[in-house]
Amino acid sequence: STCQRKGQVCGHDGREYSSECAALAEKMSIDYRGPCIRRRPTGDDKTGCSSITCQPLPSENCKGIVPPNSCCPICGVAIKLVYSQRMLDQVVEAIQSMEPATISKVAQKLQEHIKTAECDVSTYLDEDFTIVALIFPNIPRPSSLQIEACYQEAMKLQSLVEQRSPTLVTEIPLSALTGSYLVQPMSNSKSSGSVKFIDTFLQIMIVLVVMRTLMAGNIT
Fold this sequence. Notes:
The protein is an alpha+beta fold.
């Protein structure tokens, strides 16, 4: 895919890169253009991203997922991977490996399990010490089929992690992954929250009506 060789960008890992090409060369997806800012969440701006200008999504077919600890949506899938540092240390010690299992190596190994050439994997460590894996199309204007292909690749990776597949646990950087879950689109999470609120409200109203009926029966 083409990229811009000039102009600072801020990666999803919170690091600044000299250009879009420099970030992509290190397998890091871009949160926004320009230097990384120190976000200061407030009551009106809970994410601290109000001063950030996000680039438009590359296609109208994109759902728009905002990765954890980021400002701008991506056209892809975000998966949070839970790992055990103790398990990883035991594996490394058992085979006396001299190479540390870095986040970039996790991305490299995950990429090897992606069979669709139009999909890339980017990983970074979140503030809660889980690994965030982003699977997204690597072409400028992906079609709905290409976006769906990357989604299916992400689902396959998540399934391999959840099942502790031998194809993963035999590889050092991936052997310590113990669980995973999808990051849902913001619109979906908001709507589900509204549904839960309405459902809870209705339950409370039903209880109040029943109690009032019982009390009225006792009075009469």
